Amino acid sequence: MRFIVRRLLLFVAALFGVSVVVFAALRILPGDVASVMAGLNSPASRVEALREQFGLNRPLVVQYADWAEGLLRGDFGTSILTGRSVTSLIAARASITFPLIVLGLLVAIMIGVPLGVAATLARSDAARTAFHVAGLIGGAIPALWGGLLLILLFARGTGLIGLFPSQGFPLDGWAAPGQAVWSLILPALTVGIIVGASLMRYTRSALGDIAGSGRIDMAMACGMTRAQAVTGVGLRLAMPQLVSVIGLTFAEMITGVMVIENLFALPGIGSGLVTDVGNRDLIAVQSELFMLAAFFLLVGLIVDLLHRALDPRLATAADATEVIA
Amino acid sequence: MSDNNGAHGQSGATTDSSLEGRAKTQKNGPKWWLGAVIGVIVAIAIIVGVNLAKPNAGAQGGNPSTVETGGNAADIVTIGLKLAPTNLDIRNTSGSALDQVLIGNVYEGLVARDGNNQVVPSIAKSWEESKDGLTYTFHLNDNMTFSNGDALTAEDVAWSINQLIKNQYHDADSLSMVKSVAADDDKNTVTITLKTANSNLLWTLTGRPGLVFDKDATYDAKTEAIGSGPYTVAKFVANDSITLKANPRYWGSHKAKTATVVVKYLADDNAAVNALKSGDVQVLAPITENLAEPFTSDSEHYTVKAGDDTDKYVMAFNSKGKNTSDKRVRQAIRYAINHEELIASRGGADKALGGPIPSLDPGYEDLTGLYPHDEAKAKALMQEAGYSTDKPLKLTLTYANIYGTELGDQLRSQLAKIGIDLKVNVVEFSTWLQDVYTNKDYDISLVDHNESHDFYQWADPTYYYNYDNKEVQRLYAQAIAATSDDQRDELLAKAAKIVSEDAPADWLFNYRVTTAWANGVSGFPVNLNQTLLPLYNVTYTK
Question: Could you tell me which Pfam families the record lists for this protein (chain B) (predicted)?
Answer without folding.
Answer: SBP_bac_5
